[in-house]
Amino acid sequence: MTDSSNLDNDRKLREKLSVVDKPRTFEEFTFLVVRATCKLFYLLEGAERVADLHPDIWATRPSTPAFAAQSWMPVRLSYEYHATNHLIWEYGSSGQFAQLAYVGWMAEIDGAWERYRTAKPFGDPGGLSKHGMEMTLMGEFHAIRNDLIKHGAVTQARTARCKQLRWFRGKGQKMHLQPHHVIDFLHKLGVWYGHDALRVDGVESVRWRYMPELKSVSMYVVSHRAEVEEQDGKWLLLLSVAFADGICGCYAIETAATRNELLGRRDDLIAAEPDSAGLRLANGELLELMGFYQRAKEDLVADNVNHLWSPPMRFRS
Q1: Dihedral of the CA atoms 176, 290, 241, 204 (nearest 10)?
Q2: CA nearest 23: which of 140, 109, 125?
């Protein structure tokens, strides 16, 4: 490819990025979400390397982030004691410095959602109303963002009641974001494929730096979704799971002749809690996911991306 062709492609990409800053379709909104995540992952990678810039200053004891199976460098901790107050500054992708990056990530996505939700649809002759779209997932995301920015990163009642983004389980809890929160949100939005390439609106030019280590055996579940769909005259119970190392898969785990036969099982899976070997249901049953995980890993290596459905939306009447 010639230099002029490269410049032309770069110009087209820049034009697309500037236009999509005012999203008018859901695909354009998710493009902005993934672009913000690209920025976040680059910053988190930098946060992992801060301690190595001055090894004589920082403590050398490694401490990996919670749920981590990332290929990033180990987190290093530095303890700084001051005369008036004892502060513990934590470095790494889950540290105190990185929290600024997470706040920016949430603010950028929340702003993109508000611009999309209040924009007029394509084909609007000028007198129609705005999208007026509402989504539980984004409502909870907004509540968490507000607590981070407006309430000193302390959970309020609305965040404590979140049903989809169950990151913090009580009011008055100190909020500390980590990489698995990012995966959970992207997975439930339907744009996490366990891959490093952007797969929104046909644009493959933007890539993030989250590169899972495929030899990892980290099977801890960080996000899961369940839904019932009809395919070829049969009803399928689909389970989509994202694991701690970024591996993600979506497969049918049960079939039935009617939809109602699977709804109870679907609800049980949605309410299940992560376990070291799979998902723990409320009745104590453990749904083991070793085979699920291995299949998802093989599909990722083969670049077989599984379908993830978008979250439900509603429109104001």
Answers
A1: 100
A2: 109
Tens of pLDDT, residue by residue over 10-60, are: 555 555 544 556 677 788 888 888 889 888 888 887 777 765 664 444 444
Entry pTM: 0.78
- Using the 8-state DSSP alphabet, how is residue 240 labeled? E
The Cα–Cα gap between 23 and 13 comes to 15
Q: In terms of Cα–Cα distance, which of 169, 60, 46, 171 is closest to 98?
A: 46
Cβ proximity of 247 and 217 under 8 Å: no
CA-closest candidate to residue 312, choices 161, 54, 137: 137
Parallel/antiparallel/unpaired status of strands 133-134 and 314-315:
antiparallel
User: From CA 26, how far away is CA 49, in angstroms rounded?
Assistant: 35
Output the CA torsion sign for 99, 102, 108, 111: negative
Query: Which tokens belong to 206?
Result: 């933007």
The DSSP code for 54 is S
